[in-house]
Amino acid sequence: MKQNGMQKQRHMRLMKNLSLALILPLLLAACATVPITGRTQLSLIPASTMLALSNQEYGSFLQQNKLSNNRNEQERVKRVGTKLQAAVERYFRSHGLAAQLRNYSWEFNLVEDETPNAWCMPGGKIVIYTGILPYTKTDAGLAVVMAHEIAHAVAGHGNERMSQSLLTQMGGMALQSALGSHPEKTRSLWMAAYGIGSQLAYVLPYSRLQEYEADKLGLVFMAMAGYQPSEAIGFWTRMMAKSGSSHPPEFLSTHPSDTARIRQIEAFIPEALTYYRNQKLTTHPLQGGEKW
Fold it and tell me: Which of 226, 220, 233, 212 is nearest to 82 (CA)?
């Protein structure tokens, strides 16, 4: 009996090692590099698939949700978005990364929804909810939110979160099989990865590392677009105050705000200001191997 037990343990170890041997090359092949920061991330889903899902889900969302009829606010969203688009494209172009935005088809829309929320899908598909406008207050405040969401998208954070969830929930199943055999689960993971829809039973919060990446990249993008980066302090402070209420904004379920985060933003403001003062500057924002 004891010998059989030992054989069983050896067999289990062998199978575990075999599984790792089979899976590890796939995971290594599925690693990508975050544009600009250089961090290695898990990226199981091809960019073409992410863009196709984005176009499909964005169109579906706009059909099911009412656009705001406030012309001034709609124009504000498009005006700020267009400036940020130009800044992001200039930054990527200057670093030889323009190809990564080649298939982007930017859209900026304001939907009539009292939920304080905003998101950006791959391909530059952005939605702002009217409920977040009392927190943004100005063009610069709106730029904080939009630049932050754009940073999440161009850094591939949604793909990274969805890839992690696919591994957890669908195990070793082949990716195409997983996506094709479980369309509803795939859609749920997609919506959760981008924090879309209060009807979801769960969301996938951004990791602290991803949040800091988006904070810093977002500050650079908004500064290059001509918006004062220190406006980010006011916005996140207002959101942090709301987080202590009995009904915290949905936005905070994926973007937690606390004093540590605000201190990190404050520490990066001086560097972001160099981009604000010289909006043609496109030097790498992280020098000397700074850790995120």
Answer: 226
- Residue 149 falls in the annotated catalytic set: yes
Predicted structure pTM score:
0.74
Catalytic residue among 57, 89, 149, 250: 149
Q: What is the CA radius of gyration of the chain?
A: 21
- In sequence order, what are the residues at sequence separation of 6 or more whose Cβ sits closer than 8 angstroms to the Cβ of residue 193? 158, 161, 162, 165, 204
What is the CA 32 to chain-centroid distance, rounded? Answer: 15
Mean pLDDT of the chain: 76
C-alpha–C-alpha distance, residues 145 and 263, integer Å: 18
The answer to whether 251 and 118 are in contact (CB under 8 A) is: yes
The per-residue pLDDT for range 168-223, each reduced to its tens digit, is 655 544 444 555 555 565 555 555 555 565 443 344 556 778 888 899 999 999 99
Pairing of strands 118-121, 125-129: antiparallel
